[in-house]
Amino acid sequence: MNWVGHYNYWGAIFLMMSGFYVVISRGNLIKKLIGLNIFSTSVFLLYITMGKIKGATAPILTEASQLTASPQIYSNPLPHVLILTAIVVGVATTAVGLALTVRINERYGTIEEDEIRAKDDSL
Amino acid sequence: MTILDITTALCLTAGCFLGITGGFGIYRLPDFYTRLHASSVTDSACAFLILFGLMLQSGFTLATVKLCFIFFFLVLSSTTATHALAKTARSRGLEPLLGREDKR
Amino acid sequence: METTIDIVLLTFLCITAIAIIYIRKLFCGIMLLGIFSLLSACLFVTMDAVDVAFTEAAVGTGISTILLLGAMGQTNAHEKRPPYQPLIALLVVLVTGSVLVYGTMDLPVFGTPDAPIHLHVAPRYIQQSPIEVGPPNMVTSVLASYRGFDTLGETAVIFTAGIALVALLGSSQKKRPPCASPPQPATLHDHLILRIVGKMFIPLILLFALYVQFHGDYGPGGGFQAGVIFASGIILYSLIFGLNTAMRVVSPKALRLLGSLGVLLFGGVGLLCIALGGNFLDYNTLAARPVDGQHLGIFLIELGVGTTVFAIMVMMFYAFSLRGRNTS
pTM here? Predict the structure, then answer.
């Protein structure tokens, strides 16, 4: 039970679960999108945590890092690249979701999920 | 521990204390405009002290020039943001909480 | 010391997440989301992910907040109290959380250098990147050269999102009937301080965006961050000086052109590599020496990415603002 070595993962999982809770328990569409944002940011946290090496530095070669006596270790650049893509794709998804919310509001007059469902059932 | 390190430690500690003061003020002060004033303490004095402490540590390198630029940008933009907030609140009709007349 | 910073930042993040769950005013929730993004950007810096921190601060704290506020402005700003206690949701969340925590017991301890994630392709990237590709920033060389296909797909995703937004919300002003005069906006004299500070800052913001674009090889930066910072400069201009003035400066037609040109540039570089005898996006064929070819190829595709991201972000902002104006 190595809780000292795993606290980062558990923190990320707690944040993931709070974002998940907002998505499934709240009915307001914009609140759901906020929860989705929290969820994706905490997934990024999990990935970047896995890429970190203790005692390493950022994966950029500078003159200072190349002149040290012992070979410099760098943190893994591959998760950084994947998460860069994921962040931008996440904001694109949020933007499309918000546009859909605005159109739903114009059509139904509300953005609460149960009121929308009631209006749909009564049509 | 050279004199530079001691000065840096003092600056960082004072900056952190001012930041906590600003946060405490945002929580405890009664009115919107007074809370805005409390947050401006954090933006100006706290930021200046912390950045100055970091500038002392980095010596005469490019990092010091960048920290200087960050400080100027922070001072100008955060005070303008405070102004924009106060102006919008006033123009929308939020009245400031005025003091009571002294009853003698 | 790093452990202390990690734990403090994670605690703040958890407190912010719990606050977002319980706050019912949407405006406060969106501001708390901005704080959440900024705190996670700080956490990324302590994890040595400086490029990711830059992107998260620019995109999550900047553009995401603006888009959420734009959407909230056209819908209502309060969340309804849920009519029942969401106990089943809580149960589902607890069960999922405990299963995930049970799964992390097998993960390697945080920070070990011989975890399986560091043994596969990453040592090759770290050792060969200065020899094969060139730029000191290894993240740029992996993003643009070793994993160039992913970046092409990502640019296409941003472009598609922009098209979807324009299709949903419209991109230009509806023609007003000639008898109805448009309401006069507040005169700019009222915003004297904002105007002057804006005039000082906006050129510097745009200059900084160009610096980030072209300096992405040597430090944290690159096309995405530069496009987003450039877009926030234009959005600031539009907030201070009015949407009409901003649409005269950067017109929607120009934005549509720029958005398509960026993706075309990226794909065109790939096809040019095929025409010169190599594979798709094989920059070695672009110049006499392979390293020079890589440098030229990375420069061109970062330019394409930055252009597309800038155009799409400003187009999204215009779409939300125009929708609010046309229907109000």
Answer: 0.91
